[in-house]
Amino acid sequence: MGHDMAVRVGKCIALRGKSAGTAQVQVRPPASHRRRPARRRARLRAAVSVFVALAVAVAAAGAMTLSAASPGAASASTAAAPSLLFGTLDTQPGTAVTEAKAGASVAMFELDWASFEPQKGVFSASYLAGLQSSLKAYQAAGMRVTLGLGLEDPPSWVFSLADSTYVDQDGDISGEADFVFSEAVRQAAASYFARVAAGLPLSSFWAIRLTSGGDEEMLYPSGGTYWAFSTAALTGAGLPAAMTPNPFPAWRPGQPGLTPAQIDQWVNWYVGGLDDVTSWQMQTLSGLGFTGYYELVTPGSGTRPDALAEEEQQNLPDGVTGVGAAWDRYYAMLPDKTHVVAYVSSVADGSGGNDSCQPADDSLPLTSDVMDSWSATRWISRIAAANGLAVAGENPGYGMPASLDSQYTNTSSTGMMAGAIRQATTCGFQVFYWAHDVHLWDGTIPFSLYSSYIASH
Questions:
Q1: Residue partners of 38: CB distance under 8 A and separation at least 6
Q2: What's the whole-number average pLDDT of the chain?
Q3: 82 pLDDT band (50/70/90 cuts)?
Q4: Which of 27, 117, 216, 450 is deepest in the core (most CB within 10 A)?
């Protein structure tokens, strides 16, 4: 991204790539308005209960037969991806049967750690009962079910644990729980996972969405700075076993003192922290009986290779790389790619003109600057192909950001839904989720439009 610094304000992140040589900055809204976890979704469900109760019958003439995709297919390249499946985010149990009949075969719902374990070791039976009821509704409708872990909403007691929050190079402390550098936070989450698995057998789920833990996507905290300067990160004390401490603890990004090669080594270590927290979650969940797909939630284009090389020549200034979004490195460095799905959480976000994937894309090396003008969807799909991964994704939700709302509600061939499904189709997606289910039933955009696209496939 050269000299341009894309700094997020609050939870705003700039993650688009370059177009015609100029950095495009996408400002994303606060986390509380992007992915609505369970306690916030409850208010949404109440507001639209009338639509759930009335559950409109949707014609499914011509709907395709959706074959079950086995987890073993996840290691195939995007060219060999299974037929495109369709689902929704935060699927409402009350409309699951209607949606399944129309061909939307994948439901998704998200846990909320704070609601389930408000006090350490004390779990809410009533909250669990609600989750079990939702799971049964999806299963009764014949849907595959994807689980969100809800780690981005930890109980307040987590912040009393050792090294529970990130610290950046300026000494600022984030408001997010640190799953990358704090073993204590990971241990608390592992206990939570075990209790989830006891109440909701993980074998019931087709896929699990993985994030960095503290954030709702695979990112370090916002702000554009670098969050690798807690006591654990600097010294190794309290660091997870597989993590190594900061390789240059006396150096700070943006300052001289390291060669570009050493800075590149530091970047690999920093992005590698996201790989490590990913691997830890996969190992823990697999040990608890999960055998399905892992959808790694990666937004936007992040920092492309040529832009990162420029930044390393400039001592790594603040910017997009601070959130760890160097997706080519992240996916390449994953030690275990079994059942991994490269998940684009910004399909049809306007980047790259919402371009389509092309058959010749895989012939280009990931270092080619030709791809700088590509959309986030096309770029991450190319990375997935290079690493032998399946690819999937979701569109930006309504109001996320508001500048895309006119595209969101556009029901024509130039609207977000048309663009998203075109990208999902040409890029060989395994599954596409519309964000969010509630807006297909509350008058924002009609479910009948979504069902018509599903039928056409």
A1: 109, 110, 111, 112, 115, 150, 153
A2: 86
A3: low
A4: 216
For residue 175, the one-letter residue type is G
Q: Which amino acid is at 18?
A: K
- pLDDT (0 to 100) of residue 50: 24
pLDDT digits (tens, 9 = 90+) for 39-74: 333 332 322 222 222 232 322 323 333 333 444 333
What are the residues facing 294 on neighbouring strands?
Answer: 208, 340
What is the C-alpha to C-alpha distance for residues 163 and 409, in angstroms, rounded to an integer?
43
pLDDT at 76: 30
- Under the phi-then-psi rule, with left for phi > 0, alpha for psi from -120 to 50, and beta for the rest, what region is 448? alpha
Q: For residue 114, which of 148, 156, 147 has the smallest C-alpha distance?
A: 156
Distance, in Å, from the CA atom of 29 to the CA atom of 31, rounded to the nearest integer, reads 6
3-state secondary structure 273-305: HHHHHHHHHHHHHHHCCCCCEEEEEECCCCCCH
Q: Supply the pTM of this predicted model.
A: 0.85
Q: CA–CA separation, 168 vs 270, rounded Å?
A: 12
What are the Cα distances from residue 150, in Å, to 86, 117, 339, 378? 22, 12, 21, 28
Cα distance between residue 66 and residue 319, in whole Å: 42
pLDDT in tens, 120-175: 999 999 999 999 999 999 999 999 999 999 999 999 999 999 999 999 999 999 99
Tell me if 210 sits within 8 A of 218, measured CB to CB: yes
- What is the Cα–Cα distance from 423 to 437, expressed in whole angstroms? 20
Contact 107, 95 (CB under 8 A): no
Check the CA dihedral 9-34-36-53 and report its sign: positive
Main-chain dihedrals φ then ψ at residue 191, nearest 5 degrees: -65, -40
Please name the amino acid found at residue 195.
R
CB 435 within 8 A of CB 408: no
Q: What DSSP state is assigned to residue 395?
A: P
| Alpha-carbon span 247 to 256, nearest angstrom | 16
Collapsing DSSP states into helix, strand and coil, what is residue 198? Answer: helix
Closest residue by Cα to residue 196 from 280, 285, 70: 285
What residues have CB less than 8 Å from 262, skipping those under 6 apart?
A: 248
What pLDDT was estimated at residue 104? 98
Compute CA distances 82 → 7, 66, 79, 173, 381, whole Å: 38, 10, 9, 43, 15
Which class for 141: exposed (0-12), middle (13-18), buried (19 or more C-beta within 10 A)? Answer: buried
Place of tokens 């691997």: 279
